[in-house]
Amino acid sequence: MNLEIKDVDKRYYKEYLEDFLPKNIIDIHTHIYIKEITETADIQDKRLVSWTSLVAEDNPIEDLIETYKLMFPGKNVTPCVFPWVEPLHKIDELNEYTRTLAVARHLPVLFLDCPTYSMEELEEKLVNGKYNGVKVYLSFAPSYIPGNEVRIFDFLPHSHLAVLNKLGLMVMLHIPRPGRLKDPVNLAQILEIEQQYPNVKVVLAHVGRAYCQEDIGEAFKILEKTDNLVFDCSANTNAAVFRQALESLGSHRMIFGSDLPITRMRMRRVCENGIYINLVPSGLYGDVSLDKNMRELEGEEGDKLSFFLYEEIKAMKEAINDLGLGKADVEDIFYNNAKRIFESTGFSISKSGD
Ligand SMILES: [Zn+2]
Question: Are 211 and 236 within 8 A, CB to CB?
Answer without folding.
Answer: yes
